[in-house]
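> tool_call: predict_assembly(chains=two)
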Amino acid sequence: MERAPEPFGAVLVVGGGIGGIEVALDLAEAGFFVYLVEKSASIGGLMARLDKTFPTNDCAMCILSPKLVECGRHLNIEVLTLAEVVSVSGEAGDFTVTVRENPRYVDVASCTGCGDCANACPVNLPNDFEGELSTRKAIFRLFPQAFPGAFQIEKRGIPNCQAACPLEQKAQGYIALIREGRFEEALRVVRMDNPFPGICGRACHHPCMEHCQRGMLDAPLRIPYLKRFLADFEHSLGKALLPEVRGERSEKIAVVGAGPSGLSCAYFLRLLGYQVVVFEAQSHPGGMMRFGIPPYRLPRDVVEWEIRALQELGVDIRCNTAWGRDFLLQDLFARGFSAVYLACGAWKGARLGIEGEDHPQVLDGLAYLLRCHRCEDVPRAERIAVIGGGNVAVDCARTALRQGAKEVTVYYRRSFDEMPARPEEVEEAKEEGVEFVFCAAPKRFVEVNGELLLEMAGVRLCAPDESGRRRPEIIPGSEFTVSADLYIVATGQKVVVPEKEGLELTPWGTVKVGENLATSRPGVFAGGDLVLGPATLVEAIAHGKRAAYAIDAYLRGVPFEEQRLSPAPLAIPWGERKNPGEPPRKLGVPERVTGFAEVVSGYTEQEARDEAKRCLSCGGCAECLRCVEACRRNAIRHKDEVRLRELRVGAIIYATGTEVFDPTKRLRELGYRKYPNVITSLDFERILSASGPTKGKVVRPSDGKVPRKIAFVQCVGSRDRERGGSYCSSVCCMYAIKEALVAMEHLRVEGEISCCALPHEGGGVPLEVTVFLIDMRAFGKDFERYYERAKASGIHFVRGRVSHIAASQDGDLVVFYVDEGGKKQSETFDLVVLSVGLCVPDEEKERLARSGVALDAEGFPYFTDFGTREVRPGIFVCGSLAGPKDIPGTVVEASAVASEVGSFLAPSRFRLVREKTYPPERDVTAAPLRIGVFVCRCGINIAGVVDTKAVVEWAQNLPGVVFAEENLYTCSQDTQERIKAKIQELGLNRVVVASCSPRTHEPLFRETLKEAGLNPYLFVMANIRDQCSWVHQEEKEEATEKAKDLVAMAVAKAALLEPLAPIPVPVEKGVLVIGGGLSGMTAALEAARQGIPVYLVEREKDLGGQSPPYTVEGVDLGKLREKLKKEIAENPRITVFLESSVLEVNGFVGNFESVVQRQGTLHTVKHGGIIVATGGRAYLPQDGAFLYGRDPRVLTQRELEASIHAGTFSPPGRVIMIQCVGSRNTEHPYCSRVCCLQAVKNALRLKEISPSTEVVVLYRDMRTYGLYERYYTKAREKGVLFVRFGDEVMPAVEEGNEELLVRFVDPLLGEDVTLCADLVVLSTGIVPHEDAPALARLLKVPLTQDGFFLEAHVKLRPVDFATEGIYVCGLAHGPKLAEESILQAKAAVARLMTVLSKDVLLAEAQIASVDEKKCVACGDCERVCQYRAIAVDWEKGVARVNRALCKGCGLCSATCRSGAIRVYGFTPEAILSEVEYLYELSMGT
Amino acid sequence: MYDMSFRYEVAHRPGGEGLFLCFSCGVCTATCPVAEVEEEFNPRRIIHQVLLGDRSVLASRTIWMCAACFRCVAHCPQGVEFANVLQVLREMAVEEGHVPSAWKQIIEDLDSRTQRLRRDVIASLWEKRAFTFQEYEDLWKERLGGGRHGEGA
């Protein structure tokens, strides 16, 4: 496919793990703009969750976090977090990508990461980052070093209680606050949505509780009683906790009816600032709350208290003023009211419509209650019959009992199930002695002998009517008669609307309203029972609230919008124990019926908190808005929404990685999530981590006990064709060893675990570790040594897969396995760690497929060619998504892809990058000191402990300080503007910021200085947070004194600062590639493609090197070599030196000058970088070992494949291959990585040529790592026989009569086995090239103890040397496969391009300098410098600093015995002036 | 001593198909309830012997010990059906005259009777509630014609 002539110079990188970060940085440094899309809230990926990394035991976070900062701050990388790719269109060179950014609910630009919000958040959720071994808040940051550092809010949906509530009361929020004992705040959360906590806590029909998810587990939370507890708590405080009125408004609004709906509307309108007058027809406000619901359910003082609170808020209530009697709507408008809310309820009793109903002994239920509650004269009666099944009927019955009735019977037309009354009310009524007669319908009242009787009929229930209740039908002949002194009819209420108001009504006589509760008359709204007919309390209150917002919208002339969100999905956490909780206590029946005392007692504090603890927090965030209150930066955005963005890019790179296999999916027998002490390796990483849930203490989850015996179960989800991935996950063997070793170390240590320091051995306990495995795959550089170390440390390795795990008592675990000798074992362990494999998540598979990436069945992509990571033109994949791999493998691939993309987009380099310009720098050298001090409060992080005002006052009086002030957040954008303004306005020439750590914030402030025209090195930071307020929270005064000292020291240092300038070094474009094998040729071509002149030096007569003739995939490497040679010959940018060697290398990054000797002549070349690709050598057995060299039937694999490739091979009957010849022995104590696959490759080839040939492979561990496992499987399928020969003794080859004999011990049989062979093939290892030591000396770069070149950092800088500008690839670095060499060569070029793409390099300004007068040329500095940046000039007799190479680490300065070396920015004078200040202080001067 | 054609013979019979895929992880033995009581019974070793071409396995007692619970098949990560491989070996053992053909029948019958006995014991436990150990042993004798078998009782 032809590529677009001018590609777009921007790149999309999907996935912000270590692979994505590396490729983004390499490309951005090489002149491309990068969008980095990450689906979580922070970049860092899986590596951020690791504790240590193998084999060096570096702390993962300590080596990762500088990368996070570098990537996050890069001017040409835009990080999009919580983002995912929706669609991709266009083609290579010009793609359009749609990206969805999911809401974070926190503004990244405003958030300073101070954590005040999380301290305020009451919601605790399982911490998934920590393997759910601890909890975190609903507002949180994945880890402290996260980038961006902004917090995020987890919203799973609206909590079910809230979704069920007509008021959308944030129950989960106030419950969480109750749990924490924060009752006042909890009450404020209630009052956000509801003016009547005490009333609703008692009389609401609580749909919240019905929908509580906890009900699925044991019993729903008793939400109303929790709310009531809060109201009682408020009562005990003696003052109502009311929200603030937000800004007074002049508009007056009339509310008609002081019932729940009217008062609710008044409350919310008042909170919005309106002037509200409520007109009430009765003598007292409250409506049904006062006159309907009896006091034993809802005490009157509660009603009065909550109404009084409204009046305190400024609501004007006028009683004895009835609509229709005392005023009409037009009067209200005439009196200046802007809007009216009608909420005067349904007070008229519904009639039965039967004969005799008007008799004085027949009373309307509501009227009865009203008379009772007004303490008016109530007809005394002994026997009372109540007709109806609603709450009013039950209230009447129970009230009648309390009025002295002896017999009370309730007659209801339908059955108990249909009763609208609350079941608990019916229950309580029964307890008190009320009789219930169901399925009885009244027919007529008749007077017989002066006694009023009610004739009733039996009823049967038919199909449900439109109300959903079953329709009653009279059973003929079932009539009976009821005799009572008083009949109370409570079968419903009706609405009365004054005539002539012109309001449109519904057929049922209620007022007709729209969605916003507006009536047919403009400005008139209606709600509550007037609209709904008789409804519940909370519905009435909800109408009031809705009306308030609708009226507000009406008056502001904006549309009224209300959206209800969907409830959260069901999520009962695993391991949640059953705990149905306790209901509150009730009064005994005798105490109840003698008066109107409240039946249900409230919860005590402890009871309420215990009940609240049961909440499952199903919505995640409860929107209690505590965070909003806590955040001083107004960074919280609860209304954040999804954002779609379109990005235009020239290339796309997927680095989305893999996730760990979930053993709950298909390996249930291992007990994960069933037994708490079965954990995954990732969980264990967190336990080991000093920043993890146990602070690095090795304890088991169930009981916090220190484990004495730990089992590691390997291949969980890997090498399992049935229930996991068919492939090997590559990393599990090594991480298991690492975790075991680290755990052993931790348990030997006493006291605190720190993340990087080497632990001291204490009197801790020894740990017994067993690793259950199939093959130990320690195939990487230095891995085998690590394995040997593990064995030496006493870790047992058992070759047997664990079948299942059972729990014994006390949480111990029984592991079932078979040992290699064949004995079935079961052994008890304290803790079991499942070494889970890596897999591509299903959703990622779908997403990739949608982008047009072809995937295999297990989700790994197919590539367009051998040696590339391109999956489609312009689209690339790298890292473990390209096949499971470790960190260095991922980093190499990331850089390789950066190089591939770089060659492809080369024409657009620097086209889209941003560059920043600064004002000219002010000369401050001669000016008097003018120091400005900015003291950060960091919200309350610093100011909560340190008296920042006092620090500012103190700073103002320090010598040289002309200005000092405090800032809420000194790092915020507005403060940066302020600092700039102050620098210019006051002519400041030194700046001191007293805040957090220079590690994270120094670059920001230096940038600010530059923008203000001040040299950025005239800046000092005093760390008064991490090193002061955070560690001295309990000693506020002393902390303030310490902060003053820290500031004074910083000021003392600032006075001595001098402006520094980075040194520009011009870059010589050109690279010297040493070695012309597959890696060297690839590197040369790749660099040339990116426009760099190449000098390729090869010691042999021809290019090509020693790569094998073909690969396991079937690629003909011979053809590939010829193709590369041809391309090199045709490429004008490449100069090839054959039969040549490098004699001399001088200079430094960007400016090398080397001498190359070609057949006696010397050539001098200038170049900016060097790539070492000198390859390795095949090991050959010595002294006739294995009869090699003595018997022609013994070959090496290389000889075999050469002969197969040449077509000269005639297949014999039986071939035996012997692995590990020359590897993993005392002479070569490393694994040669490639031999297992080489044997598999050749075995498969033999089977292809001659299916009848028997092939037997004798091995120690089959190390067919990653996706290569599939070839191992294929070989077995084809009938290749693999037999293990144990760990210690190599097989012996002997001559038999006609055939060769191979003898070995078979550990499975426990017997000596002798096999005959026609041909023996030795899988020989790889050894370093014999030229390596000389070249290493020439380049001043190190070798490993095995003789391969040693990279700068095994994990994160796998192709760099510590000396800048020199890179390594291929076998020179260590044994590897051809494709890995090719990718590493490309990676080396990508790293090279981060330097050579620039015209000028800016070297570090804070570097060392030598005072030649003092230098004695002892050479100590040269020995300690890791960067080869300082060397003694023997002619002049002084040390000289190479300014381009120096990193300013200060090692030389500290080493120099004559004090001749100083480091700019850290001069002895500046440091000493800090120390002197402290000294003077301690002397009391 | 080792007959390389043996494994092909086994693999080519119904039930033996997956044999070659074995990579000796041992999960078959680890999960086996027979191996729990019979140390000699080691599925991993039997497969290994077959793969190596050790025909003597056909004459061994071990291939008759499997109780056909198929746990090995359920656990095998490579899809080797050991329980079925064993059926093949039994067939071959009979065919090659290592054991009389009736033995196969006897052992199959034993498996089926054991199951029936289980059924009856469970049924009795449920019916009588107060089923004693003596009654259980009597049932043993009744069903199996006297004498205690094995160590189970």
